[in-house]
Amino acid sequence: MIIEQFKHFYFRLPVPARLIITILSITLLFGTIIHLIEPEQFPTVFDGIWWAIVTGSTVGYGDYVPLSTTGRIIGMLLILSGGGVITFYIAMFSAYTVKHEEDLSDGKVAYHGTDHIVIVGWNERTKKLVELIRRHDKKIDIILIDQTLQHISYQQIPVHFIHGDATDDFILQKANIPEASRIVITADSSKNEKQADHFTILATVATRGNNKSVPIVVEILSANQIENALRAGANTILRPNDFMSSLLFHEIYKTKSKPFESIIQLLANNQFHQFALPQEFEKKSFIHVMTKIKEKDYLLIGIIREDNWRLNPPADFQLEKGDILVTIEAW
Asked: How many CB atoms lie within 10 A of CB 138?
């Protein structure tokens, strides 16, 4: 019964662990036997174990040598058995290391760190975001979840890749969402706007279910999905379509001196955010909220009310429940 339990336990261990246990068992066994056979040549069990390790690894220092025929036979058996096991261990360890690197690149390895940033979706915006984060803080870990990528090299893109669907709890757990410091969910450019927003909202729901307090930044393409994203648990909503439409409009009607280009470069160095109006700011003036928001290093530039944008409204403009604050955070 005990032997069966040990076999069950032993064969459930990873291969490297089994090899280490086997090597330790062999050296302990042969070290003890050689000590018992030639106690004068090997005064202690430790001396025997030392000899077994040196002999089994084929190093052969020669400080301990069996003199009797029986001792030499034990030595030959050790070389044949121990040397083969150690060689096999080195080969398996090398193969395990290579396999682990391949699994990392294929997105199969779970992440176990904390205070990391999780990004959902791989595209040019994500690539640029990774560059900006690395430039800002090289120590922070970035976890990328994507189901379209099959392989990504860490040497080329410094992220921990998780291959899978971000709406699946199993995949989110592999990214260790409960210990993340911030989540970014980007819109899937390969889908139409409605499908992309539905996936974003569903991923937000799944993410919020795994972490009740983590800030979630989402990219929404359709204005009518903003409220759904907020209800799903998003803290910040970005709408790239509106901003890009404004840029295209100004590009069409820009003057010959091209003054708007300098503004684009200025805005490129800032981070846009959209927040649902906190309850404490309801019925407050725009200038009052702007002052309070500025204390948190955000510049309030306007609001979204019923899908209508109002940039730089009058100072006494009263904010209402349901308003979305449009802000810029200095980088």
From this structure: 8
70 and 93 inside one domain: yes
Count of structural domains, the chain: 3
- pLDDT, one tens digit per residue, over 274-326 is 778 999 999 999 999 999 888 888 888 889 888 778 888 898 999 999 898 98
The whole domain housing 31 covers 2-105
pLDDT tens digits, one per residue of 99-137: 878 888 889 999 999 999 999 999 888 888 898 888 888
In a domain, 292, yes or no: yes
Based on the domain organization, do 117 and 233 belong to the same domain? yes
Same domain, 198 and 296: no
Tell me the pTM: 0.60
| Least confident stretch, 20-34, 184-198, 311-325 | 20-34
In whole angstroms, give the CA distance from residue 267 to residue 286.
22
Amino acid letter, residue 237: I
* 324-330, strands of its sheet edge to edge: 160-163, 142-146, 117-120, 182-185, 216-219, 236-238, 270-276, 324-330, 298-305, 308-311
Structure tokens at 160: 């921990």
Residue 249 within a domain: no
